[in-house]
Amino acid sequence: MCGIVGYIGKPKDIHEGLEALKRLEYRGYDSAGMAAYDPGQKEILCVKAVGKIENLEKRVKGIDIKASPSLFYTRWATHGGVTEQNCHPHADCKGNIWVAHNGIIENYQQLKEKLIEQGHTFVSETDTEVIPHLIEHAFRGDLAKAVREVVPLLKGAFALVIIAKDDPEQLIAVRNSAPLLIGVGKGEYIVASDPSAVVGITKEVVYLADGEMAVIKKDGYAVQDIDGNHVKKTVDVIDWKIEDAQKGGYEHFMLKEIMEQPEGIADTLRGRFGERVGEVKLGGLEQVAKRLNAIERVHIIGMGTAYLAGLVGEYLISGYAKVPADTDTASEFRYRSPIIDDKTAYIFISQSGETADTLGALKEVKRQGGLTLGIINVVGSSVAREVHAGLYNHVGPEIGVASTKVFTSQLTLLALLAVFFANQKGTLLPELTEELKKIPETAERFLQDTKSVQQLAEKYAKVDSMLYIGRKYQYPIALEGALKLKEISYVHAEGFSGGELKHGPIALIDERIPTLALCPKDSVYEKMISNIQEVKARKGPIIAVATEGDKEIAKIADDVLYIPRVPEPLMPLISVIPLQLFAYYMAVLRGHDPDKPRNLAKSVTVE
């Protein structure tokens, strides 16, 4: 959610900090602010603006100062409305201590009441503002020492970056259940919520772990635990290029990322096939190979699109590896007293690797001794570091809030895992692996001409509601298609199993509500045809997603989107693409920004 950029080093133009902040826009935000120490004036300049970062840029246009240290921040409102007063960074009574905070302070109300009794004055409605006041109370000239006194008083999840006018030679960063890293440059350091902000500045990063505090100065940094004990850290290298976080000629990141899916699937597959046909090699799981040999069940856990990918994985793993598989939303899993055992592999899926609910479920499984695996896109993220072993997507940064290329990469990894678990039992799956290798080319062929999807969106751009139906492997894709449409075009959409239609949803059908039916030539084709007939009998418009060459479907559907023929278990990798495009074009036609949908965030770091 909220995005933080902190800088310390040779005084630098504040506009460079804003450029780094822009690379965190995809996380979602409703306002932006900055606080920068001007060494010449020995004062901190604070500017805030509601809305986009460009509004903040307008406020600082013409301000020509080189600052260090400095804070830049995008806020996602949790406590208090979307106002300039509530935007970060926040300061103490004297304007000395400045704090940017991602997360939630659960006990802020009690802390605030005590501070007010002590004479402190508050100007915002936020939970964050208690932090600079607490530090003010403890500050005796050494910022690090004051922060170390205050952090144990805070309950909740937080990433903090702190500077002080009266101690401008250091910047403090603290992590507790919210992501934070240090970009290590030449004579300069950039603290950020994720690697996107440091791309183009440095490739070397240090990831802070929970309970760690970094004291950063112009000539170096030291990482400690909250008690002040030194913590030795390794420097990781990120291989992203700055172009990877730019649009590359497309109007929106979402469209760019949809079009990148053939390459993304190929990158996910690269180096993961074994020497024998029908065999996969997943190096990320080698360290837990012995434990995996004893696995009798698989439990997949995620949120949103990651959860829906898990539903497809459930079909793949149970169907091909003959290993019982279940899928849960992370937010519900941990609250139903889950029974964890050592015969189950728990797979946690998260694009960002920072999803709060997923992390909470992961920690609960680990606490009870379960084997945890991860499917993650962001290297070095919290999920990546918490799981016993895992697999990276290898598709580069995904900037659009609505996941596209990471979703198909997740499906690809789940297909590979199905083969892996089958291999564990001594079974090779040559047909599945050979067909997997063809998917990038098939996806590329479909994406060469998207006009039919765009024309379909033009026809339905003014609808208020849509239904999506599918069966078996296409049921999770119906859910994903509906999710994409409501996420970015703000059209009410619901996904259902085709078999569920008669059990309630059919009551909604009339000539005003189109139904998108996923009806490729597969093992449940005839049943889907029956569902389509049921909708048509009630005058509901039908959009069918069907296999190339299917002439029968055109006789009963109002509109048809044809997709290439691929084997049934791999069809979700192709059938989801027109649904992504349809949602994208619907959003654009309705005047919405598909990259930054309202009320949504790329990385949901609070529960």
UniProtKB/TrEMBL annotation:
Pfam families from the UniProt entry: GATase_6, SIS
Gene Ontology BP, a term: protein N-linked glycosylation
Subcellular location per the Swiss-Prot or TrEMBL entry: Cytoplasm
All copies of domain Glutamine amidotransferase type-2, residue ranges: 2-219
A Gene Ontology cellular-component term: cytosol
Known catalytic reactions: D-fructose 6-phosphate + L-glutamine = D-glucosamine 6-phosphate + L-glutamate
Keywords associated with the record: Aminotransferase, Cytoplasm, Glutamine amidotransferase, Repeat, Transferase
Subunit structure: Homodimer.
Protein's UniProt name: Glutamine--fructose-6-phosphate aminotransferase [isomerizing]
Source organism of this protein record: Candidatus Wildermuthbacteria bacterium RIFCSPHIGHO2_01_FULL_48_27b
Gene: glmS
